[in-house]
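Q: Could you fold this chain for me?
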Amino acid sequence: MITSEPVGEWFWEPSPVSGAAESGISRAFALLTDVRNTLVSLGLVTGEGTGSVVLSDRRAMATPLCEHRDVPVEAGDGFGPGFAAAAGAVGALALLPDQLLTLSLKLAGEWTESGVGRRAEKLFTVRVDVWGEGAVLLALSTYADAWLTLDLRERPQPEVAAENAPRLATALKRISELTGSEIDPGDPTRHARPTAEGFGDLLVEGAEYDDSWGTFEVPGRWKRLMGLVPGSSEGQDYESSTEHPVRYARVRRGERVLGFLWASVGDAAAGYEPRNAAGDAAFEAGVPWLLRLRSLRARGFGAQQALEELLGDRDDGPGGSAVESTAHEAASLDALEELSGRF
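A: Sure. Below is the predicted structure, expressed as structure tokens.
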């Protein structure tokens, strides 16, 4: 399953930037390049995604001195002209004491299940922090349970882990070698316990929480999604949960499924479930459809009537999407939420 928050993280502290002879931006750029190339060579990422470059004064982190966020990154040599230009713009500025330079990548990646390839638009993130005083920190995060012996609903999947975990372990070892520093596994998350080789064996030690997917991921991404929707939702939206079966329609941008618009068959509940494998675009695409549901509720439409009204509709805004004209049925909202996280 794919999550919107990390399943696990790992950290390294390479040697500091060597005074005036080496700029912070060149060091961070080189580290990003090496780590991405390592992940590509192992088939963990495709090399494409988005990148961000941010320069901040640590005494006023909320207002960066310079920032370029979610710039498209291309597969192949280099990162593409957009990200290189963003890094160059920040690199033209001196990195002074009390400042922090952060370069980060959100990378599309792949894993397998029973030999079948799966893809997520944000499978790994890589972040390099460089302090004005010279210290460097490298962080790697993953957003999938393909490396775990139990999935996020506590179902055994040792075969899936056997297919994928060895490549992750090799990546962690190679990053330690290229940085010349020891790996520091991050703290246990709500989903798993990172180790120097990947993750602890949940078949042996057990999961920390029951059904971490339903307990943490689903409410967390709902909160993130609603944070993107303008205006107050209190009393304006359909109910967000139901115990009844639901009907749903896929929301697409071209051939890519971004999420699922749904309505309960038994009460006044309706909403949108982002497809996590589509990455950040899944959340952004839900905003106009939630606003349209809100408008239909204000006009007196029942939940099922609202879904029917939106079947086949299109959003022509930036990065527009469309609702398929055919609705399907899921046994429960929980089943649809699981579908939205699996592939």
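A (continued): Residues 229 and 291 are 7 Å apart (CA to CA).
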